[in-house]
Amino acid sequence: MAITTSDYLVQRLMDWGVRRVYGYPGDGINGVMGALNRAQEKIRFYQARHEEEAAFMACGHAKFTGEVGVCIATSGPGAIHLLNGLYDAKMDHQPVVAIVGQQATTSLGADYQQEVDLISLFKDVAHHFVQMATNPAQIRHLVDRAVRIALAERTVTCIILPNDVQELEAVESPPRKHGATFTGIGFSRPEVVPKKDDLRKAADILNAGRKIAILVGAGALHATEEVVETAEKVGAGVAKALLGKAALPDDLPYVTGSIGLLGTKPSYELMMNCDTLLMIGSGFPYSEFLPREGQARGVQIDIDPRMLSLRYPMEVNLQGDTALTLRALLPLLEKKTDRSWQDGVEANVREWWQVMEARAKVSATPINPQRLFWELSSRLPDHAIITCDSGSAANWYARDLKIRRGMMASLSGTLSTMCPGIPYALAAKINNPERVVISLVGDGAVQMLGLNGLITIAKYWREWCDPRLVIMVLNNEDLNQVTWEQRVMNGDPKFMGSQDIPAFPYARYAQMLGLEGIELRHPNEIGAAWDAALKAGKPVVIDAHCDPEVPPLPPHITFEQAKGYMFSIFKGDPNLGGMVKQSAKQMMANMLSRSEK
Questions:
Q1: Does the pLDDT at position 53 exceed 90?
Q2: What single string gives the DSSP state of each residue in 89-115?
Q3: Stated pTM of the model
Q4: How far does CA 277 lie from the centroid of its chain?
Q5: Contact between residue 380 and residue 405 where contact means Cβ atoms under 8 Å apart
Q6: So what's the pLDDT on residue 92?
Q7: Number of helices and strands (H, E) in the chain?
């Protein structure tokens, strides 16, 4: 029997090493689903509950494997649902290929049912490569180019397949005549290293610096040892953008932790007082948390030349792989004999962890969310994979959680969208079934998409050699991050109509699905809950009832932020009592931690 274009597409994906595809079916993509069915012993289709979940899973696949992630959806509505997850992948520079169905070529342009101009729809998110097949001879080069460009550019690409083309007889090799093209398999990432003269200039700046700050992002995740050696040689402090949280372990004394509104005071002071900035693999966007222009001399390393001198005017811009570039730079760096700057950074870091412990142990009604993360840190299994969602959970993930060597961690760093936490965790577990995976999410994101993700977990968890997957839900019945943004940034009281969300029994829902559920209402139960969840023989949902009035204090409170906070009080915030009480407790924790030194 002749194979179809869909069979050939699936085979070509397999030739590229693709073994997992995430998606949801529909009649616009039935031809490819039939081909996946015929090839299911070689390539696995994972059925999400929603196309957005599938796109997030493909992004998570790319983040936690380094491979291209592939997601698939039907035409029209299904294709539209992919977009948020695809934008997450694009903005975090992850290689993802989207395969979407389309109405038959004979109906295009006729305002047919579910006909959407998919080329235009995907043109922004997949602008490096988005093409529709109208002839079976195109399949070979469309797959080859989509995968290769996604990998090479670390971006999203898209193939659109009309449903009649999916069922045509495959053309594995086009006729050798004018207009044909013959593509091949394979991509090997080049070893990109800057010119020697530029490395020398960079070394001169770093050697001249007395107070050096390093900022690392996702581009440094594979360069941990090189960053450590560099920091120790030049006597630097190292701050981490959110996507670079796992780039360096938090047990190094000069690692100041996260930077930005969700960051730490030592990171803020590091940037405000340095005379030299070395930025490695980061596109951290908030310039107010970087040195003032003219304060520091700058060197930046990034594989993408478009990211160079984008956030701070650098004297030397080094395009190159971070690990290879640092290896080439290290022999040119002089070891600092004066360690007073780094000693000061380390003192700030020690004091900060005391502050974090004091804040985490402040009483709340019923649970201080910081304590959930603080108690988890010491219990994190070796080589754990941690995912987080956008929202207030990201505050405590950024500040309270201590990452160790060998761990992996990620969230939606650039799009900062809600909902990827659980799909990321699911993709991480599918691809690393032997590792413990922990997802830290807010109740808003869980109600928006996460409840569906729990159904997907229930569908697949029995296949994993180690079933431990823990979902912790911050249950405060509030869209908490936005509530505090309304108060501090806009000077408005909490708008209950937009911010309150309905109560939901997350632990009992998990139990209904055949998972384990733990309901947590008292701070003294936190340690035991984590211990039980990390020893369980099935995935666990921890339903942690949290106080929404614990403030996510920024590392530095500006006049505008203080003014906004006061205005929200004067305007009569509906939770005024708890809001003021918890803010006072958190500020008092800062002072008490210092007095105990």
A1: yes
A2: HHHTT--EEEEEEE--GGGTTS--TT-
A3: 0.95
A4: 24
A5: no
A6: 98
A7: 24, 18
Q: Is the pLDDT of residue 581 over 80?
A: no
Q: What is the DSSP string of 410-456?
A: E---SS--SS-HHHHHHHHHHH-TTS-EEEEEEHHHIIIIIHHHHHH
Report the C-alpha gap between 460 and 242 in whole angstroms.
30
Give the C-alpha distances (Å, rounded to integers) separating 409 from 147, 305, 436, 442.
25, 25, 12, 17
CB neighbours (10 Å) of residue 195?
11
358-369 pLDDT, tens per residue?
Answer: 999 999 999 999
pLDDT digits (tens, 9 = 90+) for 244-256: 999 999 999 999 9
pLDDT over 60 at 563, yes or no? no
Question: How would you classify the pairing of strands 316-319 and 69-73?
Answer: unpaired
% of the chain surpassing 70 pLDDT:
94
Between CA 283 and CA 415 the distance in angstroms is: 12
Asked if residue 295 lies in contact with residue 307, where contact means CB atoms within 8 angstroms, the answer is no
Please give the radius of gyration of the chain, using alpha carbons only, rounded to the nearest integer.
25
Angle (nearest 5°) at CA 437 between 434 and 441: 165
- Inter-CA distances, 364 with 163, 393, 522, 548, Å: 57, 16, 10, 9
- Mean pLDDT within 11-23: 98
pLDDT higher than threshold 90 for residue 565: no
Q: Among 349, 358, 343, which Cα is nearest to 596's?
A: 358
Q: Where are the alpha helices (DSSP H) in 285-418?
A: 322-329, 340-360, 369-377, 392-400
What are 183-217's pLDDT values in tens digits?
999 999 999 999 999 999 999 999 999 999 999 99
For 208-233, write each residue's pLDDT tens digit: 999 999 999 999 999 999 999 999 99
Query: Cα separation of 517 and 92, whole Å?
Result: 32
* Contacts with 66 (C-beta within 8 Å, 6 or more apart), sequence order: none
Instruction: Compute the average pLDDT of residues 432-441.
Output: 98
Q: Is the dihedral of CA 296, 301, 302, 305 positive or negative?
A: positive
State residue 553's pLDDT score: 79
CB atoms within 10 A of CB 169: 11
The whole-angstrom separation of Cα 134 and Cα 33 is 19
Tokens of 530: 């984590």
Of the listed ranges 47-51, 201-205, 222-226, 585-589, the least confidently predicted one is: 585-589
Task: State residue 466 phi and psi, 5-degree precision.
Answer: -120, 110
> In angstroms, rounded to a whole number, what is the distance separating the alpha carbons of residues 82 and 160?
13
Residues 172, 8 contacting (CB under 8 angstroms) = yes
Which spans in 21-103 are helix H?
30-38, 51-65, 77-81, 83-91
Q: 426 near 456, Cβ under 8 Å?
A: yes
Q: For residue 408, list its beta bridge partners.
A: 385
Of how many residues is the chain composed? 597
b/e map of 37-73 (b: 16 or more CB within 10 Å)? eebeeebebbebbbbbbbbbbbbbbbbbeebbbbbbb
Residue with tokens 């180019």: 145
Reported as half-sphere exposure (CB side, CA atoms, 13 A), residue 184 has a value of: 3
